[in-house]
Each structure stands twice: as C-alpha cells, then as structure tokens.
Amino acid sequence: MENTITEQNGISLFFKNNLGILITILCLILMPFVISLIDGQSIPSLLANESGQSKFYQGLAIEIFILAVFALSYDLLFGFTGLLSFGHAMFFGVGAYLTGIMLKSFGWTLLPILALLVLAGILMALIFSIVLPRVKGITFALVTLGIAQVFYIVIQSREMADYAGAEIGLQGVTPPEFLNPIEHRLRFYYIGLVILFAVYFLYKRFVDSPTGHVCVAIRENEDRATMLGYNTFYFKLAALTISGITATLAGGIHGIYNPIIRPAIASSHFTIAALLMILIGGIGTLSGALIGAAVFKLLSFFLEKWFGGASQVLIGLVYILLVLFLPYGIVGTIRARSFRWKQGWQRWMKILRFKQPS
Amino acid sequence: MKNNILLEVQDIQTFIGQFHILQGVNVQVPEGSIVALLGRNGAGKTTTLKSILGLTPPKEGKVVFSGTEIQGRRSYEIADMGIGYVPEHRAIFQDLSVLENLRIAEREKGDLEKKEELIFSLFPDLKRLIMLPGTNLSGGQQQMLAVARALVPDNELLLIDEPSEGLAPVLIEEMMDAIQQLSAETTVLLVEQNFIVASRLAENYVIIEEGHSAKSGKMADLINDQETIRRYLEAA
Amino acid sequence: MKPLLGSFRKNRTLWITLCALIIIFTLGARGLVDNEAVGGERYQDVVITILRGFSTGSIIFLVASGFSIIFGLMNVLNMAHGALFMIGAYVGWTVFVRPDTAVDALVPILLLAGGFFLIPLWDRLLNKLKMPSWLMKTWPWLGLILASVVLIFTLPKYPITSWDVGSYQISPTNYAFAASQGQLVTPEPKQFLGISPLLGLGGILLGGLLAGITVAGFVISRRPATAGTSEGKAFPWETLSLFLAIAILGLVIHYYNTPISNFLLGLDSTLLFILAILVAVGTGALIGILVETTMIRPLYETHIYVLMLTLGVQSIIIEIVRSAWGSPEFTMHRPSIFAGTGEGCPAESLGAILKNNCSTIRVLGGRVRTYNELFIPLLGIVVLVAVWLLLQRTRLGMIVRAGVQDSEMVEALGINVQKIFTTVFALGVGLAAMGGVIGAPSTGLTTTLGDSLLINMLVALAIGGLTSYPGSAAGALIVGLLQQFVIKYGQIGINIPFMEEPFKPTPPLVPALTVFLMVIILLVMPQGLFGRKE
To answer: Taking a contact as any Cβ pair under 8 Å apart, which residues of chain A between 119 and 138 contact chain C?
Structure first.
C-alpha cells in the first residue's frame, strides 16, 4: 500500500495523521511566550531567563517531558509488548544516578555519559531478560520487582553514601554550563521538547514497523506468535532494550535537571507511577502516554499545592475513581466512542439503502 | 407432552469484548427431547450454550426457561433453576477427587446419595475411581465425570457441549448410550461436531452459521437433505 | 518399598524442597559452628537462628497464604495486602495500649455500619416503588451528597480520646509504660463537642442510613432491568433486627463508655492481646469485604485495573495510618504471659514457661525468647494446619479449590461464586491483619512496615509457586530462614578463602540474596517449587 503513495502524498498524509500532535507541539513551542504575555513579562526578560510565571511553568513542563519519555518507554514495554515489569524505575534510577555520579565525582562530559547511559540501558535489559524465556506474566513482574528493589536498597545503603548520598539523595551535581536548568531554562525547555517528540515519532515508527506488529501479536497471544514462526524472545528482548535505553536516557535528563536526585525515583512506586500514567492516558496508545504524564504531574502538583499532606489520600482516591469510571484511559475512551459512533452510522446507512446484510 | 417448550431462545445478541458473536439465535427445545446445535467451528454454538446459562450474558433477546425469562440473571441463579452444564474439553476439577467433583455439584445435602444409583449404572467406571484425583483420569473417564456431575442435582435441562470430542470410538458408543438413557428423564440441548453422533441422538436440530440460527427442523429430514448438509456443515 | 517409591515420585517437589532446606540448614549451621569468631556458644546460635527463621517465615506465611489463595481464586493481585497487614498491626496495637480509644471509635463505626445492614430492606422497598428512570439515576447521587453533609457535620464532633501524634507526653507509648507501672489513667466521661449528644448520635445514625440507601440505589440502577429481584422472598426481618441490634449496641456502648473502658483498662495484658487480635482480624475482614464488594467486584474482568486499584487502596491506607497515628515509630509490649522476667526465669523447661510466664527459655545453654522464637512459629503452624483443614475438609474449601481452576464452571454448577470471593477475600485480609498484630511486638510499628513485608511475601510466593498453598508455606519458610542466616552472618562474618578479614554481608544484601535465590529457582523451575505447570 505504501508504495502507491507518492512522496508528496506521504508528507501530506503525515500531516493529516498527526494533526493533533503537531498542533500540540506548536502550542508547546508558543507556551513560554504566551504565559509571559499573560503575566506581563517582556520578551527580552523572558529570553534572559528572568524569573516569573513563565519560567515556573517551563520548569513544570520540563518535568512533564521527562515523565512523558519515561511513560512512553513503559508503554512500549507493557502497552505494546505486554511485558508487565515492576522494575522499570530501575532504568530511570540508574540513568539519573549514573549521570549525577559521573558529573560530580568523575567530571565526565556529556557525550561519554550519553554513551555510558546507552550501554547501561542495554546491560540492564539483558539482566532483566535472563528470566524472560522461561517466566511469563505476573511472575516476570515479580522478578523485575525483586531486581529493582535490590537496586533501590543498594542505592540507599551507607556503603554507597560517598557517591549516591544514601537516603537523602545525590546532591551538588553541577550540570554542564550550556544546559544549566536555572540559567538556561528556556533552552532546556526546547531541548526537552525536541527530545520528547523525537522519541515519540521514533516510537511511532517502531510500533508501525513489522517488528512492532510482532510485538503487538505477542501481547495479544504469545503462543500464536510462536506458532507463526517468530522467536518471541528476540522481539521481547528488542522491546525491552529499546524501552530500557529510553528510560535510562529519561533518567539522565532528570539527573541533569533536578538539583537533588532522590532514591524514590528508583522505587517500585515510580514504576507504578509510570503504569498509572499510561493507564490514565490509555494503554497501548503512544499519545495516551503523553497525556497521561501531563495529567499525572499536574494533578499531583496541584493537589499537593492545595491540600498539602492530605494530597496523597486524594491522589489515591483519584486513581480509584479513574480506574472505576474511565477504565480505558482518556485516549482509549475517546477512541471507543468514535468507534461505536462509526458502527452506528454504518447501520443507519444500511437501513437507508434498504439493503439486506449479506 | 412433547409440545411443551421447555427452553426457548429468542433472537439473542451476544458480545464478547467488542466482537459481536451471536447475531440473532433462535432455539426451541421441547420437553423430553434431544435437540442438537450443529454448525462449523466458531459459528457460535458454545457461545449459545453459555448465553443461555448467563456465562456470556446476551445483550438483547430473550431466554425463556419453563415459562420464566432468565436472561440477565446471574449464572448461579439460572443453574439453580434446574439447568446442568457439561462444558467442552472435559472441564472437570483436576485438583478434586472424583467424589468431590460430584459432591460439589450438590445443591442440597444428600443430592448425590439420591442419584448415586443412576450415575453409577450409567458410568460404572466412576465407582471404581471414586477416590482418585481428577488429574489421574483418562480423557474418556473425565468426560464421563463431567456428564455425571451435571446429573447430581435434579436438572430439568442439560446443556452438553461436544461430548464425543476426542474420544475413542468405543467410548463414543458408551457416551451415546448414556445420553440416550438420560433423555428418558431429562431434556438435552446438545452441541455436536460429529454429525453421525448428532443424527443418531437428536430428534430436532438447529444449524448455527456465523452467529445466527440458519435452519432448524426435524433431524430425520436433515439426514436426507444433502444440500443443507453440504452448505452448512461440511468443511468449507 | 514400592509405596514409598510411589509417594516419592508423587511428591517430588516436596522432597526436593526438604532436601534444599536441609542443605541450607547444614551449610548455615556448619558455617556458624566452624566459625572461629563465635567462640564457645556455637550450637545455640544455630538453633536460635533457625527458630528466628521460622518466626520470620511464620509472619510472611500469614500474609502470603491469604494473598496466594486470593490470587488463585480471583486472579486479583492484592497489592494492598502489605498495607492491610500494617493496619492490622496499628489497630491491634491501639486496642492493646489504649482500649478506651478503641471503645470510643466503636460507637460511630457501629452506628454507621447499622445503616449498611439495611441494604436488602431498601432494595426490596425501592423495587416496589417503581420510580421513573431519571429519578432512579439521580437520587443515589443526591443521597450520597446528603449523607456526606450529615456525616461531615456530626462525625468530627464525636469525642474520640485521641492523642497528639507529635507530643510524646500524651502518646500511647507513654501511657502504656505508665500502665505497666500500675498508674492507671481513668478515662473521662465523653462529651460531644458543641452539639447535643442526641443530635450527634442521631446524625451519625442518619448518615449511615442515608449511605445505605445510596448504596442500595446504586446497586439497583446497575442491575439489568429484566433481572430477577427479591420479589418472591419473605420480608427481610433478620436484616431489620440486625440493624436494631447494632444500633442499640452502639448506643449502649456510648452511654456506658466509662465503665467499659475502665474494665478493659484493668484487664490483664494477655486478655487484651487476644482482644487485640480479634479486633484486628475483624477490622481486616471488614475492610476486605468493603474493598472487594465496592471496588474489585465491578472490575474482575480487567486484571491490570484491579492491580492499579489495590495499589491505590494501599497508598490511601498508608496515608490514613500516617495521619491518624503519625509517623513516629511505636513499640508494642509483649503480653504478660510472655513478658515475665522475675523468679524462675529464664525458664529451664516448657512447664516452667507456663508457670512463671517467662520471656525467655534456656535451650542448649542459650536463651530463646518465648514470644518471638516459640510462640510465633507455633502460631504459624496452627494457622497452616487450620487453613489446610479448611481447604481440604469443608465444602467452602472444596469450592475454593475448584474455583482456583475454573470459577466460571463453579458458577455454572449453581454456586454463588461472588459470595465465595467475598468470603475468601475477607478471610485472606483477616489473616494478614492477624499477622500484623502478632508481628508487632517483635518488629515494632512503622508506616513502611507493609512495604518491606510485601516484597518478602512476593519473593516467597514466586519461590513457592504463586497459587499453591503448600508453596506459600515453603516459600515463606525459605525466605525467613535465608534472611535470618544472612543477618546472623552479618554479625559474625564468614571466612572466605584468600580474604584476610571475614566477609560481613551488610543489611542491604539480605533482600538482595533472597531475590537472587528467587531468580535461580525461577530459572530452574519457572512455576516455582509447587506451582502447577501451565
């Protein structure tokens, strides 16, 4: 089918298919300026990264971008390949801590760190995949939970305190000058935006590729995929590796952006947060991961701001209500609606034509 | 007697997830008879049985059992009204012994004692195996146990799904004899792939094709109707 | 000879597990005995470490068994199980050290619960009314709003003897210490804060009734229109009388609060401990019923959402505990029959324990704590046998075992599976809550209690086989033993060839090692030791 579409049509088709995302990108590009306009801040002062509403919201948006990349990686693993991992936060945690430690204690520059993060991501994916051929479903989740929990405990141990800062977290990391999140927040914002949507479109490409289709087939019915002649282990490993590298990189950005790297980002709660984000947005929909991350971050931020200590109870309640009343997530619900609407339309057309269903 | 309709399924529509599996199935089961549901694999025969029992509740349509509408009720309530179910693939409880498998089907204490004689006269093998765990039974014995389990309470109607599936020819004969004897006391709605078995057991038939009942009538007529058999039942 | 071989073949995993345990024992024991650093008292260390392993294993087992049965039967991974364990510990501890607070809290709970017992009655009445559908849909929400308004105005006014979580002086720990010294605090008569008692009590009762009607309304509006109703059944007198009994009980407790509190405060701590266990189990079971019927039941089909839901419940419970009890760590005293240190202690024989209520007993020249190292393992074994009997010898157990394999077929036999699910869920949570109280005197109370237990429990279940009952026992025991041996080695160190200093595993290595063991076992036996092959 793709062969018949000419180059120009391909581009216009791309715009047609991704209209929502492209509009979102445009809005996000304009967002700092719009907020500064509303706030009454002048454009030069915005460009000079002076503090104000705009800078604050840029910071919030950067955190959402990081979470969204993490949620995307989890969506690829769980939403598309059906691998339920409870240890995904380990990738993020390793990314953040490695970046922090390398910057602080060893004085590495960004490029070697980047290479190191990719290596670490691949390595951890291999560790997780040791049990992959033999263990399925919930047992895999428990194994990954166990492995990640060990990392979580080790990172907090006294023995590592010189490097990782024990329970308090890793402090005093000097980010590279051109990426300083305080002095060059606007630049950081746009870099984060570019990274997020680069990951998004790469993932979209992967999901639409033959390999991605096999991954979905594994999620739907692994035995059938095996019978069709696919070695499902390699496809699962591929998904795990890609998702692992992405999560590690997201952790790396987190490590540069945040003044303190807390051990909580390696805990199982953080994996669950990722799961929650894609559940809010809709499992197995890439745009759902983005929406989910935004809703999750904004919700927990504002609840914390308004209710303080009681916010955790409220967030828990919101989770339960979401799960009870919006079981397919935001994107999933929207899609299901339109799906039914289309079916109803077709039935209506049938009646109009007085045609018997064959 | 035979004119009394014990079970009537009227135009039921059943969805499993987003799939519209049954799109209008009509079945009438006269009291005291055996009715066979025929059709190709995946036509919706098993789903019809499950919809009657409420395991996959129908979205629209009616199921009337001895005068009361039962669609939309919970499965256990429907079963409690006197419908026994023998699922496909010999779904007995592997972890339970033969005795426990029978005991669990009791609706009131002492049901098993009342029916013991009937069950063991139909399936004498089971008496010998009574304390064995379900895993240790052969395929045929498991199938017999599955049928016997449905006999423990006083059921007016039995829904039997593929009783001959995967059985050796000798065992098929035995199973057919048992079902024939049963039909003297209860009504049976049978799903059967094996046309020879179905044609020998049943008096009436309903053919299900792609989720709706395509044809029904007397089994005696169907046997001679090669056209219908070719159209609906032979492998496509 | 032949039957022996046969039984060996049949129970292969059992024997393999036993052998593995024996190897762990002997290796661990040999390591301890051969270790130079230990000095003279060697064998007692082995015995005590094994007993401690059994103790830890027992607590893990109490939680894991319920979890695994729930998972097997309902396919629900109840991630809130650890938090429910914790709430069991906190509730039991409150009953144990401040029974007067527990009595105070009982009154509003009873009054509220009364309304819910009337649900079948409302169900019947509302069915007869035959309201228009728009009214059917809107009024439960109205009822919900009304009930919340009434409760918001009355419930906080109810005087529960509480303590400032930040201040140590009036904390229950301090109180418990004073009480153990013989200085009894007499609770003061309870007064409503700002409103007349009649209005307050009536308001709470009304709130409960409204909430009950609301729930009944939701139930009716969810039910398919053609479904059978309770028309043919007799008037539900029993629910009415139950409601009256509960409401009257609540009122009686309110008006005789002081004598009841004084009576409880004067009780021996052993009796209080038993009471604490009962209350905790009851609370756990109630929470279980509530969570199962209102949240899990609508979502059986979508397992991942149930998982998320239980995680939400977990975080809510932790936060509730944090706000009600505060975050400081509490300790719990052992009940009096395990706390004696006076004459004749440490006891020389089992009989002497019972006579002198000793806290320790002399075994092989070392001291073994009776509560931690004898009572808890014993209780674990009792529960193991009791639940096993329940599963094997009763009709409920038979249905559960059948339902683990195929709950749809069980339903098709005419058995109300949902009722069984609720019962089993309540039982499992009750067991976990009991584990919480039993474990509290040895572990203390923190708000992270549930988290660490949850991990241990999951590892134990992965080792033993997720849905297998003997598997949960074996897994719990292995995890308990491994942990205790590693902790022991952390104290004394292991001599490793080519290393000058003895190697001392640090506390972080304890969970690391159990996870390592889990990975190895799963590589060899992917279904766990006792799991069924798919």
So the answer is: 130-131, 134-136, 138
Is the pLDDT confidence value at C310 over 50? yes
Q: Which residues in chain C are contacts of B69 at CB distance < 8 A?
A: 226
SS (H, E, C) A262-288: CHHHHCHHHHHHHHHHHHHHCCCCHHH
How far is CA A286 from its chain centroid? 9
**Tokens (6 digits) for A77:** 């693993």
Chain C CB contacts of B153 under 8 Å are 414
The rounded distance, in Å, linking the Cα atoms of A290 and A199 is 11
pLDDT in tens, C238-255: 788 888 888 888 888 888
Alpha helices in C35-132 (DSSP H): 43-74, 81-97, 99-117, 119-129
Domain count, chain B: 1
Hey, which chains touch B, using 3+ CB pairs under 8 Å?
C
pLDDT band at C280 (very low <50, low <70, confident <90, very high): very high
Compare CB distances from C227 to B72, B85, B103 and report the shortest one's residue: B72
Amino acid at B138: S
Query: What mean pLDDT is predicted for residues A266-270?
Result: 85
Evaluate whether residue B78 is within a structural domain.
yes
Query: Would the pTM of this model clear 0.90, i.e. be above it?
Result: no
| Facing B77 at nearest CB: one of C228, C409, C413 | C228
| Residue B23: strand, helix, or coil | strand
Q: Is A316 on the interface with C (CB under 8 A)?
A: yes
Q: Is residue B116 in some structural domain?
A: no
Which chain C residues contact residue A336 at CB under 8 A? none
Token pair for A356: 């018997």
Element at C361 (helix H, strand E): strand C360-363
- B202 vs C45, more confident: B202
Kindly report the average pLDDT of chain C as a whole number: 78
Task: pLDDT band for A7, please (50, 70, 90 cuts).
Answer: low
Please tell me the predicted confidence (pLDDT) of residue C58.
Answer: 94
How far off is chain C from A267, nearest CA to CA, in Å? 11
Extract the tokens encoding A26: 């445009």
Residue B3 lies in a domain: yes
Set of chain A residues whose Cβ sits within 8 Å of the Cβ of C519: 130-131, 143, 146-147
Q: Strand (E) positions, chain B?
A: 5-16, 19-30, 34-38, 60-65, 68-69, 83-86, 157-161, 187-191, 204-209, 212-218
State residue A244's pLDDT score: 94
Sequential DSSP letters for B37-77: EE--TTSSHHHHHHHHHTSS--SEEEEEETTEE-TTS-HHH
Q: CB pairs below 8 Å between B and C: how many?
A: 70
Structural domain including B223 reads 1-82+196-236
Chain A residues within an 8 Å CB radius of C526: 131, 134-136, 139
- Which sequence spans correspond to the domains of chain A? 63-327
Q: Over 80: is that where the pLDDT of A196 sits?
A: yes
In a domain, B37, yes or no: yes
Nearest CA in chain A to C511: A150
State how far residue C315 is from chain A, nearest Cα, in angstroms.
6
Give the up-direction half-sphere exposure of residue C202: CA atoms within 13 A in the CB hemisphere: 5
Q: Which CATH number do you get for residue B200?
A: 3.40.50.300
